[in-house]
């Protein structure tokens, strides 16, 4: 069964973007980038990876899930065209290479995807979609940035209080202050 992985950059105070979707404060240069680009090459936008000479072999992820606002920030009609891209929106649509826009319940889509053959499913964002899919997330990979935003889009928007345990798998601290933490959902039984 495929895993749903929420792989995302997050500020120290728990925001994945600023109030208007800003993410330009996140550090994109430094010693953390080579390690991230090596393991998570599939998460780099297709054109950026090509410009950097980074091969994308779809070994970590072959599908990416996004809410409409996260998709719109990409600036191109098909930002991750090397992957199957599924964008959730009840009111908007778009057409592009390897892109599907759907108003279907995200949980139903993820449950169906998990039963297909393939690599892991990357939950790219945003916070509302992450909150909707919280029960389906199998693994968290958080790129904690040494920044305080003060306000913005939270890692999980409007999620009710319900503690759930994740077990640490790996944590790597870099000189830049970025800390990449990987955790898996603790399954009872």
UniProtKB/TrEMBL annotation:
InterPro entries with a match to the protein in the record: DHFR-like_dom_sf, RibDG_C, Riboflavin_Biosynth_HTPR
Ranges of residues in domain Bacterial bifunctional deaminase-reductase C-terminal: 4-180
Protein name according to UniProt: Dihydrofolate reductase family protein
């Amino acid at each position: 069964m495929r895993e749903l992985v929420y792989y995302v950059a997050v500020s120290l105070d728990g925001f994945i973007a600023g109030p208007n979707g800003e993410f330009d404060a996140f550090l994109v240069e430094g010693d953390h980038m080579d390690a991230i680009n090596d393991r998570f090459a599939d998460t780099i936008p297709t054109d950026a990876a090509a410009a950097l000479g980074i091969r994308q072999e779809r070994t970590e992820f072959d599908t990416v899930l996004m809410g409409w606002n996260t998709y719109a920030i990409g600036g191109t009609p098909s930002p991750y065209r090397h992957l199957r891209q599924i964008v959730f929106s009840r009111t908007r649509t778009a057409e592009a290479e390897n892109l599907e826009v759907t108003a279907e319940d995200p949980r139903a889509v993820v449950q169906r995807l998990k039963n297909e053959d393939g690599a892991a499913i990357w939950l790219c964002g945003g916070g509302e979609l992450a909150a909707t899919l919280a029960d389906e997330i199998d693994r968290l990979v958080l790129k904690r940035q040494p920044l305080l935003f003060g306000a913005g889009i939270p890692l999980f928007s409007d999620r009710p209080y319900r503690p759930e345990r994740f077990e640490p798998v790996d944590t790597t601290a870099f000189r830049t202050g970025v800390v990449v933490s990987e955790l898996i959902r603790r399954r009872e039984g």
